[in-house]
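Q:
My hope is that you can spare some time for a protein that puzzles me. I hope you can help me see how the letters and the tokens relate. Thank you; the sequence and its tokens follow:
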Amino acid sequence: MKQMKNKIISLSLALALALGVFAGAPVYAEGEETQPDGQTPGTITNTDQTGGGEGGGSTSEPSPTEISIVNYDIGGSFGAHLRPGEKANISITVSDEWAQGKNAGLRGRINTSSFSGKDAIAEKRSDGTYKFVFTDVTYNGGSNEFSFDVITEGGDEPREVQQLTQTIIQCAEAIEPTPAPTPAPAEVPKIMVKDFTFGGNSVEAGKEFTLELTLFTTSGNTNLEDVMVGLTFPTDSKNVSLASGSMNTYVGAMAPNETRTISYKMVTDATMEPGSVNITVQLTSKNGEAATSPISIPVTQPERFEITNVEAPETMMMGEEGYLSVTFVNKGKSAINNLTAEIQGENLANPGQSQFLGNVAAGTENSVDFSVMASAEGVINGKVILSYENSKGEVATLEKEFSCTVEAAPVIDDPGMMDPGMMDPTMGEDVSTGMPIWGWALIVVGVGAVVAVVVVVIRKKKAAKKLAELEDEDEDI
């Protein structure tokens, strides 16, 4: 019984001794990565142990203290964003009430492959926080998570290690690029002929003129490319042609709401009838719609309306009525419309005479007559005025001056014209017989009639001769 009791005591001592040996040996967790200073990242440990030895003891393990980041700041010579390979200064402020209570210092050590740099010693601030300043930190790219170990140093307790992480939003690879705006669908402008000019209200046949076209593009969000302008004449028309240059003009690119002017040297046929020339302008481009624009140019013939002759008496007596004859001709190829003739002048007893003659066709001659009487002795200075409308619808005038000398009427000493009461009664006895006064009057009237007939015949012969000469001139033209 005593031997059994000794065996039990020996077994108990051996078991106690084995437990003491195993209690003093360090224990490592499988798969844990150790850090310098024998600490595990992300944990707070206390390496100072008290008590122990044979017979048992106790180990004091302080409760972990949380260390939190208050704020951070980043600066340096990098641009708008921190790019891989660039350096920066990263300042991080943390709050650690445990370190402050134990009078411990803090050291920061970078613990990430995305950043590299030297350790930073925290500056204890008056508000109880600690500020780490990591200088010349190189951003290696990849993650923008800046992880570092906070290590307590000194103080009344063993050091602790705690890992903190701060997101650095200034890192270029972590900044999501602003998506490019979706481009609006292309709105190609249209092109048109906004205006055109040719130097006036019409062009004269046979003369050169400049046609100017003003092009205009409507609104849009892209340019018209390779704009071309072409002219097309009617296939059956030979009345108009280019004086120089090409009928196709390259304009190039035109922006929306742009105006451009191009010009052409042109000429019309001299023999064409008055009217208009129709031209089609064709507008094309590489990326826009084709367009056409018809234009019309009025064409007129030159005026050749003339006063060819004015016949007026050179001398006339006071109280006598003379005749003024005006001859005119239209040598042009257009009719003269609404012709009116009138006479004006000084010393006219019947001024303001006017006659409406109507239209004068091309190649036609005509004449108009006026009666002329003087209001006093002297000279009549007058003019003939022809007013008409030409082929352009414009009112035009022609003027021709004339003059006539007015003499006093002769005094006729006719006893028969005397007052019978003043005649001597004896005068009738001495009067010789002969032709009576009325006979002489008849002779004078007859002679006057013959002279008038002769004048009319002579005028007609002159007019016929003049018309023949004009016809010969037209044939020569």
About this structure: Residues 20-63 have pLDDT under 50 and may be disordered.
